[in-house]
Design a protein that fits this description.
Largest sheet: 8 strands, parallel, barrel
Radius of gyration: 17 Å
Shape: globular
Strand order of the largest sheet: 1-2-3-4-5-6-7-8
Order of helices and strands: EHEHEHEHEHEHHEHEH
Number of helices: 9
Helix content: 40-55%
Strand content: 15-25%
Length: 267
C-alpha cells in the first residue's frame, strides 16, 4: 500500500512546502483539499493548473485525489450540485488526479433515507458519464448522512457505474458501529482509497497522532492486507477544524512509521 496525507492537516500551506513535507517524510502522495481557502481549487486558470501539475511531477509525489465538498444527497435542485462536480472533474483531469471526493450530505430532517439515496444515486449516475469521458473516478465518502459502508452501498448499488466508487473514512464507519471487516466487505468492489486518522473517543474527535487514539487502525490494515488490497492509505488529519490540535508537520514522520509498522505486522 502507498501512503499519502491530506492538506486538510496543513491549512493554506503553499504547494512547494506541502511537497517538501511529502518528500522529506516519505509519503508517496497528497490528497488536496479543494477549497477557495487553499492553493488548489476550481478557480485556477489553465496556466496555474499546468504549474500545479508540473510541480507535482517534478517532485515525484502523486496527487491522490481532490477532496471537494459537493453534497450529492442534499435537498434541492440537481444542477448546482452537478456543476460543482463537473468543475472538480475538470480540475482533476487538468492536474492528472485519478479521483475526486464527494460527500453524501443528505438532510434527514427534510428527506426520508430513501429520498436521500435516490437523489445521490441520480446525481452520481449523471456525473459518471462525464467522469468517464475525462478518465476520473468519483468517490462517495463514508460521511455525515451515510457514514457507514452499508449506508454508502445503498447509493452505490443504485448507481452501478464503474466511474463511481467509495472512499472509506475509517472514523465514520467506526462511529457508525461497523467493524473493519464489515466495512471492507461492503466497500471492496467499489473501493478507491482509505482515509485513516485517530481520535480520543466517539465524544472527542479532535485529531491525534496515529496510534494515540481509539480507532481500529491495526484491524483496518490487517483486513486490507489479508485481501491483498494494494491501494492508498491517506492520513486525514483535521487540523482545519481543530485549531488546538498539534501541528501536523511534526507528526508526519512518526505517522508514516506507525503505518509502516502496521503494514509489516499484517504482511
Amino acid at each position: 500500500m502507498k501512503l499519502a496525507f491530506s492538506t486538510l492537516g496543513v491549512p493554506g500551506l503553499p504547494l512547494p512546502d506541502v511537497l517538501r513535507l511529502a518528500t522529506t517524510h516519505g509519503y508517496h502522495g497528497v490528497e488536496l483539499r479543494t477549497h477557495p481557502e487553499e492553493p488548489v481549487h476550481p478557480g485556477l486558470g489553465p496556466a496555474e493548473r499546468a504549474d500545479v501539475a508540473a510541480e507535482f511531477k517534478g517532485s515525484g509525489v502523486e496527487i491522490l485525489g481532490l477532496a471537494g465538498y459537493a453534497r450529492v444527497a442534499a435537498p434541492g435542485d440537481d444542477e448546482p450540485v452537478l456543476a460543482e462536480i463537473r468543475a472538480l472533474l475538470d480540475l482533476a483531469r487538468d492536474l492528472g488526479a485519478p479521483y475526486i471526493r464527494v460527500f453524501p450530505g443528505g438532510d434527514l430532517d427534510l428527506q426520508t433515507p430513501e429520498e436521500a439515496d435516490a437523489t445521490a444515486a441520480r446525481r452520481l449516475g449523471t456525473a459518471a458519464e462525464y467522469a468517464g469521458e475525462l478518465g476520473v473516478r468519483i468517490l462517495l465518502e463514508t460521511h455525515d448522512s451515510h457514514r457507514t459502508a452499508a449506508d454508502a452501498m445503498r447509493v452505490l448499488g443504485l448507481v452501478g457505474h464503474r466511474q463511481v466508487g467509495a472512499l472509506w473514512d475509517v472514523m465514520h464507519t467506526w462511529l457508525g458501529g461497523e467493524q473493519p471487516s464489515e466495512s471492507y466487505a461492503a466497500l471492496s468492489p467499489h473501493l478507491g482509497y482509505v482515509q485513516v486518522k485517530d481520535i480520543a473517543s466517539a465524544e472527542d474527535t479532535t485529531p491525534l497522532p496515529l496510534g494515540a487514539g481509539v480507532l481500529p487502525l491495526a484491524e483496518c490494515v490487517e483486513v486490507l492486507s489479508r485481501h491483498n488490497w494494494d491501494g492508498w492509505l491517506c492520513w486525514e488529519y483535521e487540523k482545519r477544524w481543530y485549531e488546538s490540535a498539534a501541528e501536523l508537520p511534526g507528526l508526519l514522520g512518526p505517522g508514516r512509521d506507525h503505518l509502516s509498522r502496521l503494514l509489516n505486522e499484517s504482511a
